[in-house]
Amino acid sequence: MNNTNTTETNKKLFRFVSSVVLVVVLATLFGVMWYMRFQYLMNPYTRFLGKGNYLMIALYMVITILMINTFKGFDIGTGRISILTMSQAIAMGLVNVLEFFILILMTRIKALMWITLAYVIVLTVVDAVAVLLVTYFSTKFYRMIFPPFSILNIFGGYENDLVWKMNQRADKYSITGEISCREPIEKITKELENYDAVLINDVPAETRNDIVKACFATGKRVYFTPKISDILIKGSEEVNLFDTPLYLCKNTGMDGISAAIKRAGDILISGIGIILTSPIMIVTAILIHRYDGGPALYKQTRCTIGGKEYKIMKFRSMIMDAEKDGKARLASVNDDRITPIGHFIRATRIDELPQFFNIFFGDMSVVGPRPERPEIIAEYVKEVPEFAFRTHVKAGLTGYAQVYGKYNTTSYDKLKLDMIYCEKCSVLLDIQLILMTLRVIFTKDATEGVAEGETNANVHK
After folding, report:
1. Nearest to 345 by CA among 229, 275, 441, 252
2. How far is residue 296's CA from residue 292's CA, in Å, rounded to a whole number?
3. How confident is the model at residue 39 (pLDDT cuts 50, 70, 90)?
């Protein structure tokens, strides 16, 4: 086993141990609360014996593991401390909400509901402090004993900001050299010897294949930017009918049963969303109207599945006649068209709430690619014809690009993210993305505007 393999094994072991410690700490906190408070809420005649108490703690531990894993909160050492702790805290909040309902069903005494809620809130606050401490010290220790890999950037003819982005994570990446993909493969292979890993950064497919083979032969890890075709074939299936390897890409999207479940979920979620957020929507509408006397809502033509056009509903966050020149353009950084109220409702996603009505009536889904305007799509398609692939599924309120990208993510990167969803869309993935959206709401940079004048400037094929 070489040094790289040994390091990778040690990293996995460290993350596993850290995750176990995190879960044990959280389960212990619940156990203390259970023995000191929760079990006394039950009727003395139906109170659990020893094994029953252990079962409740074990159940809490299982739910905790599932929920934190859904929010990708076990990436200790590799993720940002702020994002990890936020993910873990939200996950534990949901776990404790579920525990609250379990306790209410077990006690069956309405008078104890507020006492139970108070205990659950205390537990959630203590959990938030615990995940912060465990994750902070585990991550700091991880970064001390596992320095970042030295990476060679092999670049093509197109310049992007990926190297800059990766260098912002100095704890994880250290891009210390670069070489053009146009250099002879022998020279590139020789250069690989000085680095732990390689970044194949937007390199032509044929050249990339040669580099990947060279990296495999020398045991170097590879980071690479995928082409659209890479994403489309990622979920392909093996066909083992012949002695010649064969793969199948069905390209059919969701099956009929999954699509029906998704639609039923859209109706249920949007209906509940309309009911629960109606007070917020009413107050928002009043504030927007009182600010400048204009309408609170605006309707705009967007495209959904198959390129079908519909009128999306959103709260108006800009001044009236924001596009009086008739030219469609995205919101930019420090856009003076955005009102003070608009800044707030955009940052908190309140401006998106009226889309629950679009979802309820079937124009769009809870999860799917961001619905774009026909003019914007036409502009992008001139540079990247594959941008139209996004309409192979119904547009969504949240989605892969909304969760893992930002508002100012380049259109080509958004396309890749949307295509990842189109390629592997499923009901379970929808549930995960809906839960992950809770984290995005608290992430400021997810709502940043694009740079001035940027539309398809950063599109690349």
Report:
1. 441
2. 10
3. confident
Q: Is the pLDDT of residue 328 over 60?
A: no
User: For the stretch 407-439, what's the b/e string if a residue is b when 16 or more beta carbons lie within 10 angstroms of its beta carbon?
Assistant: bbbbbbbbbbbbbbbbbebeeeebebbbbbbbb
Left (φ > 0), alpha (ψ -120 to 50) or beta: where does 202 sit? Answer: left
Residue 3 falls within a domain, yes or no?
yes
Residue 223: strand pairing partners: 199
Q: Do strands 197-201 and 149-155 pair parallel, antiparallel, or not at all (unpaired)?
A: parallel
* Mean pLDDT to the nearest integer, 324-334: 59
* Helices then strands, each counted (H, E), the chain: 15, 10
Residues 6+ apart with CB under 8 A from 448: 333, 406, 407, 408
pLDDT digits (tens, 9 = 90+) for 334-353: 677 888 898 899 888 899 99
d(CA 61, CA 53): 13
Query: Would you report the helix, strand and coil content of the chain in percent, each value rounded to 5?
Result: 60, 10, 30
Phi and psi at 411, nearest 5°, equal -60, -35
pLDDT at 461: 41
Q: Is the pLDDT of residue 414 over 90?
A: no
Which of 375, 260, 262 lies closest to 329 in space, CA to CA?
375
Residue 37, in any domain of the structure? yes
Contacts of 355 (CB under 8 A, 6+ apart): 312, 313, 314, 364, 397
Q: Do 340 and 273 fall within a single domain?
A: yes
In terms of domains, do 136 and 166 share one? no
Q: Which of 204, 225, 246 corresponds to the end of one domain? A: 225
Helix (H, G, I), strand (E, B) or coil at 102: helix
CB 368 within 8 A of CB 399: yes
Secondary structure of residue 312 in the 3-state scheme? strand
Give the whole-angstrom CA distance, residue 146 versus residue 9: 12
Count of domains forming the chain: 3
> Locate tokens 């999954």: which residue?
258
pTM confidence score? 0.79
Question: Which tens digits make up the pLDDT trace of 221-273?
Answer: 999 999 888 998 888 889 998 989 999 988 887 888 999 999 999 999 999 99
Alpha helices (H) in 76-112, listed in sequence order: 81-107
What is the rounded CA–CA span in Å between residue 357 and residue 214? Answer: 53
Question: Are residues 49 and 103 in contact, defined by beta-carbon separation less than 8 angstroms?
Answer: no
Model confidence at 149, in pLDDT bands (50, 70, 90)? confident
